[in-house]
Structures are given as C-alpha cells and as structure tokens.
Task: structure prediction
Amino acid sequence: MSDAYTTAAGRESDLLERHRQARTARLTLPLRSDEDVVALRRHVRERAVAIALSLVDQTKLVTAASELARNTLKYGGGGEVHLDSLDDGFRKGVGLHFVDHGPGIPDIETALRDGYTTGGGLGLGLGGSRRLVDEFEIDTRIGEGTTVSVVKWKR
Amino acid sequence: MERIPILRMGDLLLVTIQVDMHDRLAMTLQDDLTERIVRDAAKGVLIDISALDLVDSFIGRMISNTAAMARVLDAQTVVVGMQPAVAITLVELGLTLTGVKTALNVEKGMALLGKTNFG
Result:
C-alpha cells in the first residue's frame, strides 16, 4: 500500500505537506459508523499518551478527533482518517487528517462560527475543534469532498 | 442491544457511565432515562460521569437534553464527578452545560437532590 494519499482535491493538504518530513508513523482508519468513531478516540488517546501529552491536551485532542470524525460521518457521508505521529527533531506531535468525498463546505467562515449548524447539532464541531488543537486547516471542494487536518504538539 | 443500566434508589435514578459511549448509546440512554423518570415517578436523576475521559458536544447535548426533559417531568438532574481535564475541554469547546446542576461527587450530588441518607 502506498504511503501517500490524496485528498478530495487530489493532493495532500498544505498543513500535511509541511509536516511530511516529520512524519514517523501513519495509521489509517475507516470512518463509517459510530463504532469507528469510538475506535478512533482510543487510537488517538494511545498516540497522545505515547508522546506524553498532558492529560488536558490528551483530552482536547481526543475530543477534537471525536467532533471531526462525527462531521466526516454526518456531513461527508463517511470517509477515513489518517493518524500521523510527528517528530520534527525539536518536538513531537500527533496529526489527524479527516478525509471525505461528500458535498464539500460552501462557506467555511460560516461553518466555523459557533452555533452554526445544518445538521441539527450544536454547531460546535468545527469551530470548537479548532480551539482544541494547535494547527487547523480545511481543504474543501464543492462536490468533491473535504479534508480537515489538525495537529497537536507536545508542549 | 447495548444499554447503560439505570438503578433506582428510592425516588432517585442513578446512572454510572462506564463505557466509551458512541452516539446511539447516548441517545438510548436519554430515551431510557426519560422513560424511567415517568415509570418510577422519580424526583431526581444522578448521572455519574467520573469514569468518562471525554465529553464531546454530542454527549454534552445528551446531558443537557436529559436534564431539560427531566425538568419538565418534575425531576431534577445532577451530573457528578466530571474530571478536571474534561471540564477544561468542554468549556474551551464552547459547551457550558447551561441549566445542568453539577456536583463534585455522588455524595454531594445526593445532598443537592435533598438526600442526605442515601435512600
């Protein structure tokens, strides 16, 4: 299996590209059901513990993962997630890349606003997740899909 | 189907969430609790989340909704035992559980519900 993957746009997100050199391991998991979300939370927790993230940062990352995985399921019609272990020589981190081939997000600024939802949720998923991580990027194409990439670094 | 058990103690219902909840399980618990409040004529609901290492917006909403439903069914809800890291994350996520009573542990939660002697 090839190590590279393409997003909906046919290329890796900029954020992912920037951290490519720092990537030491990758795990790809499907996001097709509620159970997949629970499995992802467990894997993210393991990665976070492995780089000795503080308990608060572990919780923030796992919570962000849960929100974004739910978005992939609910709005993207399912997809997959790549878990990257990162080490750039100075610091360690965990990168997560949520990839779907759904309808895309027409207005990202609005989608990021707290309280905005098209799915009957609380509208905290995207904007809330962004506050819980260190780096956050959305790559979305109408009719092609969305990739959301986040990174949390060990402080 | 997988379910989270609900215990009855006098006119209280006690739930201890000990599994990593997926969304359907959370919804089932919300439905079950509402059903039991009516069936058991419960006056209070105590939800112990001390074993939960994550409360995301979905679980948070389930807790808020349960408390709201309990209120219109004449029962009070207290959420107890939230881990500090979970509290920090919840607030940063933007979820403040408005309208939900909380207590540090089961004993304080019981006191809040007016039950000093666990019965």
In short: The helical segments of chain A are 14-18, 34-50, 55-74, 108-112, 125-132. Chain A has one domain: 14-153. The beta strands of chain A are 23-31, 79-87, 92-100, 135-141, 145-153.
